[in-house]
Specification:
single chain
């Protein structure tokens, strides 16, 4: 079950990243972050009220607050990087954040078996290879790489924090995700306000203004809700099994993003990227059977 929920996380994060990357090519990245997370807040708020989730409130929610504060920074950096560089390169680099939850898992006592250790190494190598190198393809700007590495550390920190943020009940999970998203919107909204005050923009420059945002609302909702669902399935995976295994399997999402970019945007996958995707799948099998 750990493998199943972690792989579901990969699928959801991969599709959310692809959607977020597309949206940031049409509107400011901060607007995408705030709008997509605001939709998630509304939906999760209704779920928490309907399920009586407030009864699960406790000190562990501070982990959700911390995850919510880090999340917008990571998402902003990542979406900007996706808009600057090829998705098939940026997304795999973003998965290097897996080092954070894997390290935490080992520190708290996770001891994967020999096959699982081998799977972790193979999967991480595959994810990195799936990103390139793109020496003769579209250039990856230095700024894009730097933004991606900052995002990777942030994503890894969110994974480590959210795994500790809820009790063992489903209502507790909904409450933790709601608190995380409220914090996302508060932090991201504050950053957007400051950006506008300093001369930045909150709406697209092409003259469409709010019409563009409203037209993109279904896509924004998908990105926000897919990201929420991914956090939820990852939390369950981390509760059911070793964090080290859950984190590595969940971080296979760049393969999904790269394939989506190949199918929709016609971004070319080089032989090394295809080999990387194959290694990632081999690593998944080792982790699931180890």
């Amino acid at each position: 079950m750990t493998a199943l929920f972690a792989l579901a996380t990969s699928l959801l994060w991969g599709l959310a990243d692809f959607g977020g990357g597309l949206l940031t090519r049409r509107m400011p990245a901060l607007t995408v972050v705030v709008a997509s997370q605001a939709v998630a807040v509304v939906v999760l708020g209704a779920v928490v009220i309907a399920t009586g989730g407030w009864s699960e409130a406790g000190p562990q929610l501070w982990y959700a607050v911390a995850a919510g504060a880090v999340g917008p920074v990571a998402m902003l950096c990542f979406y900007k990087a996706l808009a600057l560089g090829p998705m098939g390169v940026v997304s795999p680099l973003g998965s290097l954040g897996v080092v954070v939850p894997v390290s935490v898992g080992l520190l708290i006592g996770d001891r994967p078996g020999l096959l699982q250790f081998a799977g972790i190494g193979v999967a991480i190598a595959g994810v990195v290879l799936a990103g390139g190198p793109e020496l003769r393809g579209a250039p990856v700007q230095r700024r894009s790489v730097l933004l991606t590495l900052v995002a990777a550390f942030g994503f890894g920190s969110v994974m480590a924090l959210i795994a500790e943020a809820f009790s063992s009940t489903l209502t507790g999970l909904f409450l933790a995700l709601f608190v995380q998203r409220v914090t996302n919107v508060v932090v991201g909204g504050g950053a957007l306000y400051v950006s506008v005050k300093r001369g930045g923009r909150a709406l697209p420059e092409d003259g469409g203004g709010m019409r563009v945002v409203w037209a993109a609302l279904p896509a924004l909702a998908f990105v926000g809700l897919a990201d929420v669902a991914a956090n939820g399935t990852y939390s369950i995976a981390a509760q059911l099994g070793p964090v080290t295994v859950a984190a590595v399997l969940a971080n296979l999402y760049p393969v999904v993003t790269a394939l989506a970019a190949r199918g929709v945007l016609k971004e070319r996958l080089r032989a090394v990227q295809a080999a990387g995707a194959g290694l990632a799948l081999v690593g998944t099998v080792l982790l699931a059977t180890g």
